[in-house]
Write a structure and sequence with these properties.
The complex is a heterodimer of chains A (115) and B (110).
Chain A lengths: L4 E3 L2 E4 L5 E6 L6 E7 L6 E7 L2 E5 L7 E4 L6 E5 L8 E8 L9 E2 L3 E5 L1
Parallel strand pairs in A: 2-11
Antiparallel strand pairs in A: 1-3, 3-8, 4-5, 4-9, 5-6, 7-8, 9-10, 9-11
Chain B lengths: L8 E5 L4 E6 L8 E7 L6 E6 L4 E2 L4 E4 L5 E6 L8 E8 L12 E6 L1
Parallel strand pairs in B: 1-9
Antiparallel strand pairs in B: 2-7, 3-4, 3-8, 5-6, 6-7, 8-9
The chains are: A mainly beta (115), B mainly beta (110).
Chain lengths: 115, 110
């Protein structure tokens, strides 16, 4: 396994701009998750994909946020009209999809700074 | 969702054992207990998980109380590289998401 990769690692943008992040999960992992982490807090769940289907979205995911996983492989998270409150670390994780328990493997994250 | 209580911070001397406690008194009978750690500027890293009995792997040991209301992550010999925030996460099968608390920040002293 090469691990979960995320790009870019850092993004600085001006308020009102759109940004897009990419996540490449571990190959053959059919579940993919997005989390957001602000300073001093633990990660917060945003959304989850089973293959290409987006099965759950947190209330944290406002209508300015959209996530896709078009072919069940990589995923993108887009934030439109960014606000300063969107500044955070955006984490992606993937898992095999076992029932019972299902270990999630996290990427290094994309740190977003909105000026 | 099960709530967890962990100390905000702990300190340990290098090469000494560390016991990181977690209280999860509202856990359901089928929830697994996962532990992750997060090193500075990195994503969370899986450490260990268990259901009822104690578990060991190359990174750590997990001791689960008989009533499952608490658990303890044991690092047998702390190193400077173990300095991180440690999260205890009860995982409910079928929810597909982790609910992180604020974790315990472990400081390892040389």
């Amino acid at each position: 396994d090469t691990g979960v990769s995320q790009n870019p690692r850092h993004k600085i943008t001006k308020r009102g701009q759109n940004v897009t992040f990419r996540c490449d999960p571990i190959s053959e992992h059919n579940r993919l998750y997005w989390y957001r982490q602000t300073l001093g807090q633990g990660p917060e769940f945003l959304t989850y994909f089973q293959n290409e289907a987006q099965l759950e979205k947190s209330r944290l995911l406002s209508d300015r946020f959209s996530a896709e996983r078009p072919k069940g492989s990589f995923s993108t998270l887009e934030i439109q009209r960014t606000e300063q409150g969107d500044s955070a670390m955006y984490l992606c994780a993937s898992s095999r999809g076992y029932e019972g328990t299902d270990t999630q493997y996290f990427g290094p994250g994309t740190r977003l700074t909105v000026l | 969702d099960a709530k967890t209580t962990q100390p905000n911070s702990m300190e340990s001397n290098e090469e000494e054992p560390v016991h990181l406690p977690c209280n999860h008194s509202t856990i359901s009978g089928t929830d697994y207990i996962h532990w992750y750690r997060q090193l500075p500027s990195q994503g969370p890293e899986y450490v260990i998980h268990g259901l009822t009995s104690n578990v060991n792997n190359r990174m750590a040991s997990l001791a689960i109380a008989e009533d499952r209301k608490s658990s303890t992550l044991i690092l047998h010999r702390a190193t400077l590289r173990d300095a991180a925030v440690y999260y205890c996460i009860p995982y409910t099968s079928g929810t597909y998401k982790y609910i992180f608390g604020t974790g315990t920040r472990l400081k390892v002293l040389a």
